[in-house]
Amino acid sequence: MYSQQAKTPMSYQLFYSDRSAAQGVRVILEELGQTYELIEVDIKSSGPRSPELLAVNPNGLVPVLISEEGPIYECGAIFTFLCDRHSEFGLAPGPSDRLRGRFLQWLFFFSSSLQNAFSMTHRANRFSAVESGYPGVEQQGCKRLTSLWQIVDEAIGEKLWLLGESFSAADIYLFMLSTWLSAEYGHPDLGQFSNVKRISDKVMQRPSAAKAYPALIGAA
Fold first, then answer.
1. End-to-end Cα distance, the chain
2. What is the spatial distance between Cα 26 and Cα 20, in angstroms, rounded to a whole number?
3. Which DSSP string corresponds to 29-42?
4. What is the pLDDT of residues 94-153, one digit of tens each?
5. CB neighbourhood size of 53 (10 A)
6. Which of 188, 155, 206 is nearest to 28 (CA)?
7. Domains of the chain, with CATH numbers?
8. In the chain, how many H helices and how many E strands?
9. Helix (H/G/I), strand (E/B), else coil: 140
């Protein structure tokens, strides 16, 4: 449906904040050679979200991608939408490809299991009705992060990329989440997961990552 349009860059808007999943979407847009406008919003303060953000995502979260078809939120959905729309770049296996199921598996795993574990360490109030329960939630979140990253590390094994020989958007998602690991929150160190780190380091070397993560890449 979009094959003719996909040969030339489209224009997107991205509701965006640093240190959020919107950075991963920005890497995807750079990999696909698309033009986009960043709409920066404050999601870190405890104040109310902007009316503009709530109008496109009632959850008040980023990323939100705006195309001529309207807004889309949820990082995994945006990744899949963009990769399928611009399939000539080969960032995702096609619907009939034998690796399609595994690709979707990792996107869902990252967006539900891993991101949820990070939320437990950053936003304990979402998981406990009483403040006295926050430390237990945070501790459990860190334990979950260790076990979940270990699952990813073992699944990679000696493979070049998460899906095998081919680089994909799943590797970008892995890289994005690896940048969230922080000793400040008691997270495990990335070095504990040598295969994950190997792929994350390779993604970090791509020009698309340098554009979306200038502070991180510049400090590396």
1. 41
2. 11
3. HHHTT-EEEEEE--
4. 999 999 999 999 999 999 999 999 999 999 999 999 999 999 999 999 999 999 999 999
5. 22
6. 206
7. 5-89 (3.40.30.10), 100-206 (1.20.1050.10)
8. 10, 4
9. helix
User: Which contiguous run of DSSP H or E holds residue 146?
Assistant: helix 134-156
CA 40 to chain centre: 17
Residue 2 has pLDDT above 50, yes or no: no
What string of H, E and C letters represents the secondary structure of 65-103?
Answer: EEECCEEEECHHHHHHHHHHHCHHHCCCCCCCCCCHHHH
Tell me phi and psi for residue 71, to 5 degrees. -85, 150
pLDDT in tens, 171-209: 999 999 999 999 999 999 999 999 999 999 999 999 999
Q: What's at 83, amino acid-wise?
A: C
- How far, in Å, CA of 137 to CA of 121, rounded? 7
Adjacent-strand bridge partners of 70: 67
If you average pLDDT over residues 42-71, what whole number do you get? Answer: 92
Rounded CA separation 60/54 (Å): 5
Contact 105, 74 (CB under 8 A): no
Residue count of the chain: 220
